Amino acid sequence: MYPFSFTKAANTREALNAGRSGGRYIAGGTTLVDLMRETVERPETLVDIGDLPLREVSVTERGGLRVGALVSMAEAAAHPKVRALYPVISQALELSASAQLRNMATIGGNIMQRTRCTYFRDVSADCNKRELGSGCAALKGFNRTHAILGSSDDCVATHPSDAAVAFAALEASVHLLGPDGERSVTFADFLLKPGDTPNREHALRQGELITAVEIPSLPRPLKSGYLKVRDRQSYEFALTSAAVALHVRGGVIREAKVAAGGVGTVPWKLPAVEQALTGERPSDHLWAEAARHAADGARPLQHNRFKVELLTRTVERQLRTVGGTK
C-alpha cells in the first residue's frame, strides 16, 4: 500500500471541498481498501464521508423509494419499505456478500465497486482500465467469468454489483451533489460501457458525491425477485443473474422490468425480453420465448460461451418464479 493522507469530513461542504481538491471519498471501504492494498488504487488523500446525513430510506411523494448513499447494504436489505415495495432489491443485496461485508458496505459504494477481473487486480498484467492503451490480457487469457454483452476490443470485464442489476431493472436514478450543485443521472447513463475508454467507468464529475439512489414509482401490484447463479452458494460473484419485476393486471402483463448481471460490462437491461412479455398472458411458453432474447447481441469469448445458454435459462427460471405458471 502506498502512503496516503486521511481526513474526515464533518459536513457536506467539507467533503465537497476535499473532493474538489482531488480527495477520494471513502465510506465502508470494503472495495477501495482492498484495491489500495493490492496497489491497483493509489489515492493520495482519502476523505471519510461516514458522518454525512445520507442514511435515510424514504418513500417519495410520487410513491417511489429513495435510499441514501450511506445506508449499509444490510440496513437497506432489511428495511420494511424495501422488502415490501421492491423485494428484488432486498434479495439482490442479501445475495451480494458475506454478512460482515453487508454490515460495512454502503449502497453508494456498492454501485461504484470496480470489476473483479483478475487481470485488473494483477498489476503485472495488461489492463486498459488501469492504464489506457496497455491492452486487455483477458481477451487472450482465461476469460470464463468475463462479459458476453457490452464488451469492446479494449475491455471485457464484468460489473460485479448485484444491487446494481436490480436498480438497472427498475430504472432507478442516481442523485449527485458536487461543486456545481445537485443533479440526477438515470442508472442506464451512470455506469458506462467500456468502448475505447474503459478507464472511465461512471458519470461522476470531479468532486461529486452520490447522495442517494431513487427507484421510481411503478404500477401496483408489482411482483419482483432476484436470481443469482454462481459457482458456489456462499460469497461468490455471479456467473449470471436476473432481476425481474412484473405488473400483471386482469391476467395480462402490463409492464415488465428485466435486467441481467454477471454477463455484461455494466448491469444489462433486457428490453427485447421486456417487449416480448408486455401485453401477453403469463405462461410457461411465454417465459421460454421471451428468455430466448436475453442473450441478443452476445459476443462470447473462448472460455465463457456457456454463459449464452446459462443466461437464457436463468432469465426463464426467474420469469417463471416471479410470474408463476399456468
From TrEMBL:
InterPro entries: CO_DH_flav_C, CO_DH_flav_C_dom_sf, Diverse_Substr_Oxidored, FAD-bd_PCMH, FAD-bd_PCMH-like_sf, FAD-bd_PCMH_sub1, FAD-bd_PCMH_sub2, Mopterin_DH_FAD-bd. Residues 1-220 form the FAD-binding PCMH-type domain. Signal peptide: none annotated. It comes from the Bacteria. Keywords: Oxidoreductase. Transmembrane segments: none annotated. SMART domains: CO_deh_flav_C (SM01092). This is Xanthine dehydrogenase family protein subunit M. It comes from Streptomyces phaeochromogenes.
